[in-house]
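ok so I'm stuck.
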Amino acid sequence: MSQPPNPQYQQAAMPGCWWHPNRPTGLSCSRCERPACPDCLREAAVGFQCTDCVQAGRQQDRAQQKQYRDAGYGSRTLAGAQPARTAVVTPVLLALNVLIFLITVFQSGSLANNNFSELFQYGQLWNPATLAGDEWWRILTSGFLQYGLLHIASNAFSLWFVGRPLETALGRVPFTVLYFVSLLGGSAANLVFSDLDAVPVVGASGAIFGLIGAYTVIVIKLRLNPTWLLVILGLNVFITFQVPGISILGHAGGFVAGLLATFALLYAPDKNRLKWQLGGIAIVVVAMIGLVVWKDSQTISASCELTTSRGVPSYACYPE
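replied:
not stuck anymore, here's the structure
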């Protein structure tokens, strides 16, 4: 009599390779778990994967990297610059504003009336001295002067709160360009759209409003939740119109300039991106300078000098 084979000693048949069914194999893909012969497996980070899974993984990695780049992370920022893990430009700008404020306090001997200092008088954006006296440095220096302790505290907080995440999202160089273009926009708006006898203007708020304008473009481009932006924008607009002595023109000019500069940075075509970015920002800057030059051509010339009365410096201009 013959006996049936003992299952304990019967060799189980191995499955065939998914891509080569005529090749029995005891191996399988660590990702999809399909049987695969050695020719169809590739070494991966964990185990071995089949050729299909390796290709799919590469496609997924490329898609994720593109999402990271579009969101301001990865190998490039939103503006196509080298990414920076920490903000450097924002603290430097903040420190510069505080240092200049302390110098004006030391010169004037007062926290509340630091405008009575020589540096403040030489640096504030005063239309007669800037336009009639051709003291063009005031367009830049006025953005680093703050009037009183509350002014420097509020602008320092806003710059720190708004600037750091924006710097890491755009990159240090694009952020620096954005800041100074926004500062120029605030100064240009005050010079062009205010009278010659307008009160002097100082403060970093024009540049800060430009940074808020940049956030507006980012929210639109990435289709982010606009709630946070609307709260910040609404609060700043309320302060602009309700607090006396606030330069509405400076805030509006900085916001528009920052918005246009960020549009040039983020919507430039991928091909020759840097050239498109530089060209777009150059158009914005030239347009603002052109408006200032036009306003200057409508203004009579004057000679200006710093005078001192009872130890208090003041600036005066006299038509030529």
